[in-house]
Amino acid sequence: xxxxxxxxxxxxxxxxxxxxxxxxxxxxxxxxxxxxxxxxxxxxxxxxxxxxxxxxxxxxxxxxxxxxxxxxxxxxxxxxxxxxxxxxxxxxxxxxxxxxxxxxxxxxxxxxxxxxxxxxxxxxxxxxxxxxxxxxxxxxxxxxxxxxxxxxxxxxxxxxxxxxxxxxxxxxxxxxxxxxxxxxxxxxxxxxxxxxxxxxxxxxxxxxxxxxxxxxxxxxxxxxxxxxxxxxxxxxxxxxxxxxxxxxxxxxxxxxxxxxxxxxxxxxxxxxxxxxxxxxxxxxxxxxxxxxxxxxxxxxxxxxxxxxxxxxxxxxxxxxxxxxxxxxxxxxxxxxxxxxxxxxxxxxxxxxxxxxxxxxxxxxxxxxxxxxxxxxxxxxxxxxxxxxxxxxxxxxxxxxxxxxxxxxxxxxxxxxxxxxxxxxxxxxxxxxxxxxx
Amino acid sequence: xxxxxxxxxxxxxxxxxxxxxxxxxxxxxxxxxxxxxxxxxxxxxxxxxxxxxxxxxxxxxxxxxxxxxxxxxxxxxxxxxxxxxxxxxxxxxxxxxxxxxxxxxxxxxxxxxxxxxxxxxxxxxxxxxxxxxxxxxxxxxxxxxxxxxxxxxxxxxxxxxxxxxxxxxxxxxxxxxxxxxxxxxxxxxxxxxxxxxxxxxxxxxxxxxxxxxxxxxxxxxxxxxxxxxxxxxxxxxxxxxxxxxxxxxxxxxxxxxxxxxxxxxxxxxxxxxxxxxxxxxxxxxxxxxxxxxxxxxxxxxxxxxx
Lengths: 437, 306
Hints:
The complex is a heterodimer of chains A (437) and B (306). Chain A is built from 14 helices and 19 strands. By secondary structure, chain A is of the alpha/beta class. Chain A folds into two domains: 5-63 and 385-434, Urease, subunit C, domain 1; 66-373, Metal-dependent hydrolases (TIM Barrel, Alpha-Beta Barrel). In chain A, a hairpin with a 2-residue loop joins strand 18 (417-427) and strand 19. With 306 residues, chain B is of the alpha/beta class. Chain B has two domains: 9-132 and 289-302, Rossmann fold, CATH 3.40.50.1370; 136-286, Aspartate/ornithine carbamoyltransferase (Rossmann fold, 3-Layer(aba) Sandwich), CATH 3.40.50. In chain B, helix 1 packs across helix 5 (136-150) and helix 5 crosses helix 12 (283-302). Chain B is globular and about 55 Å long. At the A-B interface, helix 6 of A face helix 4 of B.
């Protein structure tokens, strides 16, 4: 199958005909047409009578608000061999994502207003999709001094994170929560207690015990999540748990929410569907932080997704240059690209297996992350920016790194036969489509 | 086993282990008889020893094994090669392959490095130790030594004691020994035991005295001094007192208990001098048997016919 995309098709008006419109933000699920004029949603209704510049036949397809991924690494500035805004934006569009948020663990770290402004400008220049900028919580993500977060908010930062690192200094982290209080901005927390995971490259469990690879125990995540839920409760601040992966951590978030703590959480497709049994020490594709856990952890994450403990699905799209991943497991960097496989993996592993309904899946990639981060996105409301994703839930395809738009090539999903993917991604006045000829 | 890479003993059937041991008996006779040792089994074959970590006995015994079999053997040390210039493992392996070698014997700090090599190049890969993962020739020479001294393997009780967590020897012995019908006990401070170790036929002990009660063989693992600095035990003195193997403690084991140690030893830490040099110690045998086992492995995989 041809898996290339057409990224440029500007229009003044577009009528998406005959699809099943699923818009969790408006509690709508039914057959309807969607009319877009001048980059805005104008009408969502059955049998719209309008002579549009472009008509898209969405018969048999799912039409959703543009998908949101609040956790990607586009590696700019400084690490363009891994990814840049253009390759990342193409990967996002090809995966059905219209809004992504980039993590600040770049070189240099995005930890000041000048850099945020530069990246906002860069995002506008690249276009294609909406790229939001996440700033660092501490200077250079060193966990020692607060970064100028109020300046960064003024420059356009949508959230803050020292992702990649746990803020080991509890006092600094508490200060960060207090300092952001009242701004509405969330701190996205990478939860692995530093000393407990030092040197670790995979989940600590039966598999690591046999392979001799150093483990990263779930308890490292659990105590980090517990600390941050308690600090959020104590300060009244807002924490968002990044890529949750441990069963116990899901319990801690659930319990925190029950007490009214302002805690939210996200999970990745890999932590919902893959276990450490897949770790092969001769192939660093599976290396990621936090690591792939056990089936019980996957099951707990799924339960958390279904019962509302987990608010969002993110990819943690973390591409590296091929030569960086093509080496010894312990030396290869952690992370792999996920934007172009997310929808396919979620549909194949969770929807087609009957584990999760479509509405929940789409909600976790549209309405709910938009709410957590206060984004003006994730809805097909009339008047909203026309960010729309069209998904063919039945389209069978095979993941082949040669077809990736991301610069990353090593993914444990490579070779997978999947069912379902985005076939069109609309961002305001641009219709991007999968070439299916 | 012709053309087969040897990356981990878990990939060996009991029959394959048997065939290596049988071949090793033959080669041991040749080494022991003295005089002319050089055979022609691997004449015209080229073997490279690629060692990314320091090693005395493993590297030397692989080198001698190859030479006794008539192969041309070259040893590369990571410190004096283009590895220090930052060459990737893939490129180093491809460079060696391009020179026409038949086998690469590899020691590397990274678990999975030998398996990685089998994906990258065509020559036979013999794993001479990859991190804490595997050390197949060590497990085979341990079996060989036990069988020579005890006359059998099946039914024997073995205690492997010390730093199990970081030990490729332990991770190889458990596969090799259980496959040959031995009962395996692992013992160490809980800080030196892998959590969640779950293996059929293997029991994990936190008490040394319980572990060695009535055993036929004790394999004493090397304790690296940096483990103390990493906070895994408080002092070498306390380690020696609570977990060191000495004459007094051996009274708990079977009368003719056999003592193994993969070397090099820290005398007075994990093992006392008396035990190292006593008649129940097979530590010197292990070294000689190591050459025979490595000859067997090279001969079987590189296709000589003795």
